[in-house]
Design goal:
Elements: H1 6-26, H2 30-37, H3 41-49, H4 56-65, H5 70-74, E1 86-88, E2 93-97, E3 105-111, E4 128-135, E5 137-142, E6 145-150, E7 154-158, E8 163-167, E9 172-178, H6 180-190
Antiparallel strand pairs: 1-2, 2-3, 3-9, 4-7, 4-9, 5-6, 5-8
Length: about 200
């Protein structure tokens, strides 16, 4: 049997605290979680308090009962919690990748131009987008529909619908979340020869 390192001890303590915090967040008593996880109440209490060894099979059962995964239950904090944006000055964009969801990107953009007036300039591509207007008013063209999206309002849509977005009545700033396909579609539009 290998001795436990300080790092192992910190992970052990973190997992125990996480189990208790998740149970409390659900509003469950020890008895309720123990029943859901098919454990005795005293066993669960000893697990949470560090008086019982953590066993992999129990962690899997507890993760399911807490509606999470084993990976999330034993996940450790990383040093790269804070990230700086990638800045695309040519298009007025700041981008942040979402590490927990590879392919997902958060984009902040300031717009000054209205959406295109020609239906031929609407773009469609695989993916899904979600955006919120941080300031000003945006106009979202979606198929043959036109939506005004004002400060603090959000819009979510499949990007297979022809779409474009622009400002109305002055500059607006949006924060958008793009899945991998939507991000790829927008990158292709901004390449030389593509629409802005």
């Amino acid at each position: 049997m290998m001795p436990m390192t300080q790092e192992d001890g910190e992970l052990d303590s973190l997992v125990r605290k996480r189990i208790r915090a998740l149970r409390v967040a659900q509003g469950w008593s020890l008895e309720e979680l123990a029943t859901r996880a098919n454990l005795s109440q005293s066993s669960l209490s000893r697990i949470e308090n560090g008086r019982r060894r953590l066993a992999l099979d129990q962690l899997v059962t507890l993760a399911r009962a807490l509606d999470t995964t084993l990976d999330q239950l034993v996940e450790t904090a990383t040093d790269d919690v804070v990230t700086s944006p990638m800045i695309d000055g040519a298009h007025g964009l700041m981008r942040w990748p979402i590490k927990a969801e590879p392919g997902m990107t958060v984009v902040r953009q300031r717009m000054t131009e209205p959406p295109p007036d020609s239906p031929a300039r609407l773009r469609a591509h695989p993916g899904r987008e979600w955006l919120v207007v941080l300031s000003g008013t945006a106009v979202l063209l979606l198929g043959n529909r036109r939506f005004r999206v004002e400060t603090n309002q959000a819009a979510e849509f499949p990007t297979m619908l022809p779409h474009a977005i622009g400002a109305e009545g002055g500059p607006c700033e949006i924060l958008g979340i793009f899945d991998r396909d939507a991000r790829r579609g927008h990158r292709a539009e901004k390449e030389p020869g593509g629409a802005p």
